[in-house]
Amino acid sequence: MADYYIRTPDHEESRGPFDTSQLLTLAEASQISENTLYYDESKEEWIPIGLNQQIKAEVFPKNESLTLKINPPEEASTRVEHNTAEQGGIKVTDMLAAAECDSEETRHLKKKEGSFQKAAALSTNSLGLMLLLSAVALIAPHYSAIYEALSEGKVSTILNYPFMIVGLFDFIMAALLILAVTEVYPLLRGRAMLTLGFGIYVGWALGDPIILIASTAAGLGIFYATIAQTLSTMLVALTLGIGGNATLAYLAIIDHFADFFDRMHFELVPFG
């Protein structure tokens, strides 16, 4: 039987763990309601009991919903405690008193939840910075082509440069991340694998260990920043992602990639 930690919507402090039979006892004593929150470990979030039909059916059975309304509060509480004692359980007052203690399980749960919330708070802006640096690394080597396309009014010729298109994609993703649009995370994981695979290939082909290491760090950083659920994992992802992408952006600004990107273009759109 699963155990649950609970808390009220207006309080951060949790109580527990309770199994469903203990939650039923609390419900009969009017100590909890369907709006009481329980911690769902699979989703790592607090959810009202009323939204989980299975727990709701066990804790708030319809055929017992009027039991406490018939009797005075004192009589109902005495009856619940008496029935619980006969079944070898504990009293509601004892249960609540134990739940208020700062137990090891409660501290672990709070620490885990706090770590997850801090990681989530860092993820979007940090990923936005990573993608912005990546956009600089990919667009900077094409500044002459961009200038020519804009000055001659032939913006469509940008399609001849695949890495410039990827750079524009990164710039758009960075803007969305700064706006906290987390729905783009699956796209970023694919984008991270592209950086990881192609970057390693380019570094190896050019015999440049700096590009190889920076591309590996950049790709892994972006990927793990989208899935990190603890603060420690997020900090590692930030170090890799920002460090790797910043290195690639710096190399692009000093024209380290000039010879490589000059060869990487197609004639999809004619210049003439």
Can you describe what's shown?
With 272 residues, the chain is mainly alpha-helical. The protein has two domains: 4-101, no CATH class; 119-263, no CATH class. It is built from twelve helices and four strands, in the order ββαββααααααααααα. The protein has a four-stranded antiparallel beta sheet. Helix 6 runs antiparallel to helix 8 (162-178), helix 6 packs across helix 10 (209-227) and helix 9 packs antiparallel against helix 10 (209-227). The chain starts with a strand and ends in a 9-residue tail after the last helix. The relative contact order is 0.10.
Helix and strand topology:
Blueprint: E1 4-7, E2 15-18, H1 20-28, E3 37-40, E4 45-48, H2 53-59, H3 67-70, H4 73-86, H5 92-99, H6 104-139, H7 143-151, H8 162-178, H9 185-205, H10 209-227, H11 231-253, H12 258-263
Antiparallel strand pairs: 1-2, 1-3, 3-4
Helix pairs in contact: 6-8, 6-10, 6-11, 9-10, 10-11
